[in-house]
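Changelog-adjacent note: as of this version, every example in the card shows the full chain rather than a window. The one below runs 242 residues end to end.
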Amino acid sequence: MNSTSVAVIGFSAQERNVLKGVFELTSRRPASFAQFDPDLGEEPGLFLVDASNKDFVNETLSAVVEHPVPVVLVGDSSCGTPYPFVKRPIKWVQLLKLLESSVAPAAPSQSRLEVDSVLVVDDSLPVRKFMELKLAPYSFGVEFADSGEKAIRLTAERRYTCVFLDVMLPGVDGYQVCKAIKKTKHEGKPTAVVMLTGRTSPFDKIRATMAGCDAYLTKPVDEEKLLEVILKFLPKRERAEI
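Full-length structure tokens:
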């Protein structure tokens, strides 16, 4: 498995928790990342540094003199270094792409990854494009439906690991679609349904729960909350040998 060990320097407990989840999700990809563990007796392949603390940056500069590896910073600037950086609040997909571009291309893999199928149901093209952008880096098989009727047909034909479902749809609404999905029987674990909606009232959440949904995300979808849902319902997969 081509995994780059990342030494995470600094960061808040919440940021570290999200980073852990992002690294876990990359286990689906031919080139993945894992948090550096000094107990394994290996050298890190990349430094990810909280640039809000100049001491962390200076210590990293000293470390890479002896062991040259790529460095990525998170902060307001590059702190006078030649290293790339992303600003806070962290856009996790952007950070992942920067990590990938900072390491050498992975050697061709002789194994494949098990792919989870995800269905995004929304009549808004911008929302479908947003979800495609946020899900693509984690190597999910993503399909789309722009109506409740199409979603019901697709979920009857095949099993999806997770369905991201808009509440307000033309024709059959999201509540009815959710009930239909939950009644459909396929082999394996039941399909998780995550409601996507601009409605935030307690009554709407009760209706969604009564329809059988597993989670509730409000629009515009927060990237960090979306990551939490992905980690909960679309856990990492191990490689399967060909």
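Structural remarks: DSSP finds eight helices and twelve strands in the chain.
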